[in-house]
Design brief:
It contains twelve helices and eight strands. It is α/β, with parallel strands linked by helices. The protein has one domain: TIM Barrel (Alpha-Beta Barrel). An eight-stranded parallel barrel has the order 1-2-3-4-5-6-7-8, surrounded by four helices. Helix 3 runs parallel beside helix 4. It starts with a strand and ends with a helix. One of its GO terms (molecular function) is 4-hydroxy-tetrahydrodipicolinate synthase activity. This is 4-hydroxy-tetrahydrodipicolinate synthase. It catalyses: L-aspartate 4-semialdehyde + pyruvate = (2S,4S)-4-hydroxy-2,3,4,5-tetrahydrodipicolinate + H2O + H(+).
Length: 291
């Protein structure tokens, strides 16, 4: 099963917007040292919409090679074209990832039957563990619990990243999904409660900048030390909130740049963090001991 703190890793870029391979290598090393439980490469936070297919797969391959089996590597391979999602998922399998993360088809606004058939087609085509990814705020489509329940019974579909922030979703999902199905939070603000009530892990933006704290929080929940875990969660709340003052990954890349971990460059149409948010982010970094 996929558990614990799984970082939704940024893709560091140089000033000319080319991928900064050395910074990527250094970030992966840091996560291995800090106890991150798994790495999600080229998801939303990794700027998947603006990476070319060859770049996308090269990032995944390099992360897999560097991690060398020490922790799982999950590749973002979702697309709003079913054929493209199959192509990306097969390419990720070819470079030996442990699983793939597939977002709901965005912009198309498919029906629940369309969503079921989309994910079924990918699962039928590529024999690799696959995680569904539900984030209606970005995709304009909501993967309903009943549809997740149907999908959970298909071979290769092993879990879901639920990023609605609605804790009631967990209650609705648990009786509908098959045994062993991975229930993962995709929302840092509500992740503690999600895990406390039976979730298995979190795919986290905050883990980019506070990996040890996020990993420790998840470990403590697993050990039943809820009060200590809640203390970490509460201490990180300024970051959980501030990292979404603009669209992800704009704020988290800015914080990483302030920390000296990588540059803050983004590819258009994403633009640098508005200066009006700098003080809020600096204050959150200070409160969370990141400076």
């Amino acid at each position: 099963m996929f558990r614990g703190s799984m970082v939704a890793l940024v893709t560091p870029m140089k000033a000319d917007t080319s991928i900064d391979w050395q910074a990527l290598h250094d970030l992966v090393d840091w996560h291995l040292e800090q106890g991150t439980h798994a790495i999600v490469a080229v998801g939303t936070t990794g700027e998947s919409p603006t990476l070319a297919v060859d770049e996308h797969i090269d990032v995944v391959r390099r992360v897999v090679d560097q991690v060398a089996g020490h922790i799982p590597v999950i590749a973002g391979t979702g697309a709003n074209s079913t054929a493209e999602a199959i192509e990306l998922t097969q390419a990720a399998k070819d470079v030996h990832v442990d699983a793939c993360l597939l977002v709901t088809p965005y912009y198309n606004k498919p029906s629940q039957d369309g969503l079921y058939l989309h994910f079924k087609a990918v699962a039928d085509a590529v024999a690799i563990p696959q995680l569904l990814y539900n984030v209606p705020a970005r995709t304009a489509v909501d993967l309903k619990p009943q549809t997740v329940g149907r999908l959970s019974r298909l071979p290769n579909i092993v879990g879901i990243k639920e990023a609605t922030g609605d804790l009631a979703r967990l209650t609705h999902l648990k009786p509908l999904v098959s045994q062993g199905f991975n229930l993962l939070s995709g929302d840092d603000e509500t992740a503690f409660d999600f895990l406390k009530h039976g979730g298995h892990g979190e795919i986290s933006v905050t883990a980019n900048v506070a990996p040890a704290q996020m990993a420790k929080m998840c470990d403590l929940i697993t050990e039943g030390e809820l009060e200590a875990a809640k203390s970490i969660h509460d201490a990180l709340m300024p970051l959980h909130k501030s990292l979404f003052v603009e669209a992800n990954p704009v704020p988290v890349k800015w914080v990483l740049e302030q920390m000296g971990r990588c540059g803050g460059t983004l590819r258009l149409p994403m633009t640098p963090l508005d200066s009006k948010f700098h003080k809020q982010l600096r204050d959150a970094m200070q409160r969370c001991n990141l400076v």
